[in-house]
Specification:
It is a single chain. The protein has 248 residues and is mainly alpha-helical. The chain has one domain. Helices cover 88% and strands 0% of the residues. The protein contains seven helices and no strands. Helix 1 packs across helix 3. It is globular and about 55 Å long. 30% of the residues are buried. The N terminus is likely disordered.
Length: 248
Protein backbone atom coordinates (compact mmCIF):
# COMPACT_ATOMS: atom_id res chain seq x y z
CA UNK A 1 0.00 0.00 0.00
CA UNK A 2 1.33 3.45 -0.96
CA UNK A 3 2.14 5.78 1.93
CA UNK A 4 0.87 9.19 0.80
CA UNK A 5 3.05 11.02 3.31
CA UNK A 6 6.18 10.07 1.43
CA UNK A 7 4.95 9.43 -2.10
CA UNK A 8 2.28 11.96 -2.99
CA UNK A 9 0.51 11.35 -6.31
CA UNK A 10 0.62 13.72 -9.20
CA UNK A 11 -2.65 14.70 -10.86
CA UNK A 12 -1.93 12.30 -13.71
CA UNK A 13 -1.25 9.44 -11.29
CA UNK A 14 -4.41 10.21 -9.31
CA UNK A 15 -6.47 10.29 -12.47
CA UNK A 16 -5.05 6.93 -13.52
CA UNK A 17 -6.06 5.41 -10.18
CA UNK A 18 -9.57 6.81 -10.49
CA UNK A 19 -9.90 5.53 -14.06
CA UNK A 20 -8.69 2.08 -13.05
CA UNK A 21 -11.07 1.95 -10.11
CA UNK A 22 -13.97 3.20 -12.23
CA UNK A 23 -13.33 0.57 -14.89
CA UNK A 24 -13.27 -2.18 -12.26
CA UNK A 25 -16.48 -0.80 -10.73
CA UNK A 26 -18.34 -0.67 -14.06
CA UNK A 27 -17.01 -4.09 -15.10
CA UNK A 28 -18.35 -5.53 -11.86
CA UNK A 29 -21.77 -4.04 -12.60
CA UNK A 30 -21.88 -5.48 -16.13
CA UNK A 31 -20.68 -8.87 -14.87
CA UNK A 32 -23.47 -9.03 -12.27
CA UNK A 33 -25.96 -7.96 -14.90
CA UNK A 34 -24.78 -10.60 -17.39
CA UNK A 35 -25.00 -13.29 -14.71
CA UNK A 36 -28.51 -12.08 -13.89
CA UNK A 37 -29.56 -12.40 -17.52
CA UNK A 38 -28.08 -15.91 -17.60
CA UNK A 39 -30.01 -16.93 -14.47
CA UNK A 40 -33.23 -15.54 -15.94
CA UNK A 41 -32.59 -17.50 -19.14
CA UNK A 42 -32.08 -20.68 -17.09
CA UNK A 43 -35.38 -20.15 -15.27
CA UNK A 44 -37.20 -19.57 -18.57
CA UNK A 45 -35.65 -22.60 -20.29
CA UNK A 46 -36.33 -24.81 -17.27
CA UNK A 47 -39.99 -23.79 -17.36
CA UNK A 48 -40.07 -24.58 -21.09
CA UNK A 49 -38.42 -28.00 -20.89
CA UNK A 50 -39.80 -29.27 -17.55
CA UNK A 51 -43.61 -29.46 -17.72
CA UNK A 52 -44.18 -29.58 -13.96
CA UNK A 53 -41.99 -26.54 -13.39
CA UNK A 54 -43.64 -24.77 -16.32
CA UNK A 55 -47.08 -25.33 -14.80
CA UNK A 56 -45.87 -23.89 -11.48
CA UNK A 57 -44.35 -20.86 -13.22
CA UNK A 58 -47.63 -20.18 -15.03
CA UNK A 59 -49.38 -20.00 -11.66
CA UNK A 60 -46.68 -17.79 -10.12
CA UNK A 61 -46.19 -15.43 -13.08
CA UNK A 62 -48.73 -12.80 -12.01
CA UNK A 63 -47.63 -12.72 -8.34
CA UNK A 64 -44.05 -12.43 -9.62
CA UNK A 65 -44.95 -9.33 -11.64
CA UNK A 66 -46.56 -7.79 -8.54
CA UNK A 67 -43.38 -8.60 -6.61
CA UNK A 68 -41.25 -6.92 -9.27
CA UNK A 69 -43.30 -3.74 -9.06
CA UNK A 70 -43.01 -3.70 -5.27
CA UNK A 71 -39.25 -4.28 -5.39
CA UNK A 72 -38.87 -1.42 -7.86
CA UNK A 73 -40.26 1.03 -5.30
CA UNK A 74 -37.94 -0.08 -2.50
CA UNK A 75 -34.86 -1.09 -4.50
CA UNK A 76 -32.55 1.73 -3.48
CA UNK A 77 -33.35 1.38 0.21
CA UNK A 78 -33.02 -2.40 0.14
CA UNK A 79 -29.76 -2.50 -1.83
CA UNK A 80 -27.97 0.57 -0.52
CA UNK A 81 -29.15 0.68 3.09
CA UNK A 82 -27.96 -2.68 4.35
CA UNK A 83 -25.18 -5.20 4.02
CA UNK A 84 -23.66 -6.49 0.79
CA UNK A 85 -25.20 -9.90 1.53
CA UNK A 86 -28.68 -8.39 1.69
CA UNK A 87 -28.07 -6.52 -1.55
CA UNK A 88 -27.19 -9.81 -3.25
CA UNK A 89 -30.28 -11.54 -1.87
CA UNK A 90 -32.49 -8.74 -3.19
CA UNK A 91 -30.79 -8.72 -6.59
CA UNK A 92 -30.95 -12.45 -7.19
CA UNK A 93 -34.55 -12.58 -5.98
CA UNK A 94 -35.31 -9.81 -8.49
CA UNK A 95 -33.62 -11.81 -11.25
CA UNK A 96 -35.60 -14.94 -10.38
CA UNK A 97 -38.89 -13.02 -10.27
CA UNK A 98 -38.21 -11.60 -13.74
CA UNK A 99 -37.54 -15.12 -15.01
CA UNK A 100 -40.84 -16.36 -13.59
CA UNK A 101 -42.74 -13.29 -14.74
CA UNK A 102 -41.67 -13.39 -18.39
CA UNK A 103 -41.46 -17.17 -18.80
CA UNK A 104 -45.04 -17.73 -20.02
CA UNK A 105 -44.69 -15.11 -22.76
CA UNK A 106 -41.22 -16.23 -23.85
CA UNK A 107 -42.30 -19.87 -23.84
CA UNK A 108 -45.24 -19.03 -26.06
CA UNK A 109 -42.92 -17.55 -28.68
CA UNK A 110 -40.45 -20.41 -28.28
CA UNK A 111 -43.27 -22.75 -29.14
CA UNK A 112 -44.20 -20.74 -32.24
CA UNK A 113 -40.78 -19.77 -33.58
CA UNK A 114 -37.61 -19.89 -31.46
CA UNK A 115 -35.83 -17.55 -33.88
CA UNK A 116 -38.13 -14.73 -32.73
CA UNK A 117 -36.76 -15.03 -29.20
CA UNK A 118 -33.15 -15.15 -30.38
CA UNK A 119 -33.66 -12.14 -32.66
CA UNK A 120 -35.29 -10.21 -29.82
CA UNK A 121 -32.43 -11.05 -27.46
CA UNK A 122 -29.72 -10.01 -29.91
CA UNK A 123 -31.59 -6.84 -30.82
CA UNK A 124 -32.03 -5.97 -27.14
CA UNK A 125 -28.34 -6.64 -26.46
CA UNK A 126 -27.28 -4.38 -29.34
CA UNK A 127 -29.69 -1.61 -28.32
CA UNK A 128 -28.74 -1.80 -24.66
CA UNK A 129 -25.03 -1.90 -25.43
CA UNK A 130 -25.16 1.14 -27.71
CA UNK A 131 -27.23 3.23 -25.28
CA UNK A 132 -25.18 2.23 -22.24
CA UNK A 133 -21.97 3.10 -24.09
CA UNK A 134 -23.43 6.49 -24.97
CA UNK A 135 -24.34 7.11 -21.35
CA UNK A 136 -20.88 6.08 -20.18
CA UNK A 137 -18.98 8.28 -22.64
CA UNK A 138 -21.30 11.28 -22.95
CA UNK A 139 -20.11 14.56 -21.44
CA UNK A 140 -23.63 15.95 -21.58
CA UNK A 141 -25.88 15.83 -18.51
CA UNK A 142 -28.56 13.27 -19.42
CA UNK A 143 -30.69 13.68 -16.29
CA UNK A 144 -33.24 15.93 -18.01
CA UNK A 145 -33.65 13.46 -20.85
CA UNK A 146 -34.04 10.62 -18.38
CA UNK A 147 -36.76 12.47 -16.46
CA UNK A 148 -38.73 13.18 -19.64
CA UNK A 149 -38.38 9.57 -20.80
CA UNK A 150 -39.62 8.41 -17.40
CA UNK A 151 -42.73 10.57 -17.66
CA UNK A 152 -43.34 9.24 -21.18
CA UNK A 153 -43.15 5.68 -19.84
CA UNK A 154 -45.83 6.47 -17.25
CA UNK A 155 -48.06 7.69 -20.07
CA UNK A 156 -47.39 4.51 -22.04
CA UNK A 157 -48.18 2.36 -19.02
CA UNK A 158 -51.53 4.11 -18.59
CA UNK A 159 -52.28 3.74 -22.31
CA UNK A 160 -51.36 0.05 -22.11
CA UNK A 161 -53.67 -0.55 -19.15
CA UNK A 162 -56.55 1.26 -20.88
CA UNK A 163 -55.97 -0.79 -24.04
CA UNK A 164 -55.94 -3.99 -21.96
CA UNK A 165 -59.23 -3.13 -20.23
CA UNK A 166 -60.88 -2.26 -23.55
CA UNK A 167 -59.63 -5.54 -25.06
CA UNK A 168 -61.17 -7.47 -22.14
CA UNK A 169 -64.61 -6.17 -23.09
CA UNK A 170 -64.36 -5.95 -26.88
CA UNK A 171 -61.93 -8.77 -27.62
CA UNK A 172 -58.49 -8.56 -29.21
CA UNK A 173 -59.10 -6.55 -32.35
CA UNK A 174 -56.68 -5.42 -35.05
CA UNK A 175 -56.83 -1.91 -33.57
CA UNK A 176 -55.94 -3.19 -30.10
CA UNK A 177 -52.99 -5.12 -31.50
CA UNK A 178 -51.79 -2.04 -33.38
CA UNK A 179 -52.02 0.08 -30.23
CA UNK A 180 -50.08 -2.57 -28.30
CA UNK A 181 -47.40 -2.60 -30.97
CA UNK A 182 -47.08 1.20 -30.88
CA UNK A 183 -46.83 1.09 -27.07
CA UNK A 184 -44.08 -1.55 -27.30
CA UNK A 185 -42.17 0.61 -29.77
CA UNK A 186 -42.50 3.52 -27.37
CA UNK A 187 -41.21 1.42 -24.49
CA UNK A 188 -38.15 0.35 -26.46
CA UNK A 189 -37.35 3.96 -27.37
CA UNK A 190 -37.86 5.48 -23.93
CA UNK A 191 -36.30 2.64 -21.91
CA UNK A 192 -33.29 2.88 -24.23
CA UNK A 193 -32.97 6.59 -23.42
CA UNK A 194 -33.35 5.84 -19.73
CA UNK A 195 -30.57 3.24 -20.04
CA UNK A 196 -28.15 5.94 -21.20
CA UNK A 197 -29.13 8.18 -18.29
CA UNK A 198 -28.93 5.31 -15.79
CA UNK A 199 -25.45 4.38 -16.99
CA UNK A 200 -24.25 7.95 -16.59
CA UNK A 201 -25.81 8.20 -13.11
CA UNK A 202 -24.29 4.87 -12.04
CA UNK A 203 -20.90 5.98 -13.32
CA UNK A 204 -21.17 9.21 -11.31
CA UNK A 205 -21.98 7.22 -8.16
CA UNK A 206 -18.41 5.95 -8.12
CA UNK A 207 -16.23 7.61 -5.49
CA UNK A 208 -12.57 6.62 -5.24
CA UNK A 209 -12.58 7.04 -1.47
CA UNK A 210 -15.48 4.62 -0.95
CA UNK A 211 -14.90 1.53 1.15
CA UNK A 212 -14.89 -1.84 -0.59
CA UNK A 213 -18.30 -2.59 0.97
CA UNK A 214 -19.78 0.64 -0.38
CA UNK A 215 -18.42 -0.10 -3.85
CA UNK A 216 -19.87 -3.62 -3.68
CA UNK A 217 -23.33 -2.31 -2.73
CA UNK A 218 -23.21 0.25 -5.52
CA UNK A 219 -22.17 -2.45 -8.00
CA UNK A 220 -25.14 -4.63 -7.10
CA UNK A 221 -27.47 -1.63 -7.23
CA UNK A 222 -26.12 -0.63 -10.65
CA UNK A 223 -26.61 -4.17 -11.93
CA UNK A 224 -30.16 -4.17 -10.56
CA UNK A 225 -31.02 -0.98 -12.44
CA UNK A 226 -29.40 -1.87 -15.77
CA UNK A 227 -30.65 -5.45 -15.69
CA UNK A 228 -34.23 -4.23 -15.36
CA UNK A 229 -33.80 -1.92 -18.34
CA UNK A 230 -32.28 -4.67 -20.49
CA UNK A 231 -35.09 -7.12 -19.74
CA UNK A 232 -37.69 -4.42 -20.43
CA UNK A 233 -36.13 -3.72 -23.83
CA UNK A 234 -36.00 -7.45 -24.60
CA UNK A 235 -39.63 -8.08 -23.62
CA UNK A 236 -40.94 -5.22 -25.73
CA UNK A 237 -38.85 -6.11 -28.78
CA UNK A 238 -40.11 -9.68 -28.41
CA UNK A 239 -43.69 -8.40 -28.39
CA UNK A 240 -43.05 -6.29 -31.50
CA UNK A 241 -41.57 -9.25 -33.36
CA UNK A 242 -44.45 -11.42 -32.17
CA UNK A 243 -46.99 -8.93 -33.53
CA UNK A 244 -45.14 -8.74 -36.84
CA UNK A 245 -44.92 -12.52 -37.06
CA UNK A 246 -48.63 -12.92 -36.38
CA UNK A 247 -49.38 -10.72 -39.39
CA UNK A 248 -47.29 -12.83 -41.77
Amino acid sequence: MVDFRYAPQSRVDARAVVDQGLRAYMLGIYNYMALGVAVTAIVVMASYTIPAFGALVNVLAFPAVIGLIAMGFFAQRLLMGGTVARAHVVYWAYVALWGIGIAPMVNRYLGVNPSIVMTAFLSAAATFGAMSLWGYTSKRDLSGMGAMAGMALIGLLIAGLVNLVVAMFTGITAAAMMISMVISFGFVIFVSLITAWETQAIKEMYVEADSSEAVARKSVFGAFVLYGSFISIFVNILQILGFMNSND
